[in-house]
Amino acid sequence: MTPNSVRCVFSWILAAVLLFRAGTALYEAFEARNWPSLDAIITESDARWVEHQRSVRRSMWSYQLRLRYVYTIAGRRYIGTRASFSAWGPAESFNPFNSSIASKFPAGARVQAHYDPLNPSHSVLEKAPRLSVWIALVLGLLFAKVGITYARRVEEEKKQLAGK
After folding, report:
1. Structural domain boundaries, residue 106
2. Spatial CA neighbour of 32 closest among 72, 76, 86, 99
């Protein structure tokens, strides 16, 4: 395996992950554009480092947003946890801006929550995708282009080896 083939595979893997994350968040934001909204109350809002036990003597830390808001639909109470559609995923586990998100939605604040009428337990506070989604999309496309460039170099190397 040549250095160019390793770079090609690495670029394609990064492109796939970034494009998948961005595509998922964009799809969710697109689906939510017509969701109805209602009043909700923030019950918990902070950002903190959380340790996750993986296996014996191994753990992983992540900087998580702890956001909880309560809303009621047809007499049934729901608890929402999602601030927005992000490339970091619904839990925003690795988002370095979790502190600013938490301060934007302080505990006790009244906010507008948007919910899926087909599944009222799915909700979000901001329907628009975050900047991280667009950055992941652009980086994913960039890594795909880099992958194509390295794939062409690998093909050229194969032709040169076959010609010897």
Report:
1. 3-163
2. 86
Here the tokens at position 53 are 């036990």
User: H-helix or E-strand containing 116?
Assistant: strand 110-116
Sequence letter at residue 144 = A
Q: Reduce the DSSP state of residue 21 to 3 states and report it.
A: helix
Taking the model in full, what pTM does it have? 0.80
DSSP 41-79: EEEEEEEEEEEEEEETTEEEEEEEEEEEEEEEETTEEEE
Q: How far apart are CA 131 and CA 143, in angstroms?
A: 18
Q: Output helix, strand, coil percentages for the chain, rounded to the nearest 5.
A: 45, 35, 25
Domain count, the chain: 1
Tell me which of 42 and 50 has the higher pLDDT.
Answer: 42
**Residue owning tokens 């586990």:** 93
Residue showing tokens 């992540």: 62
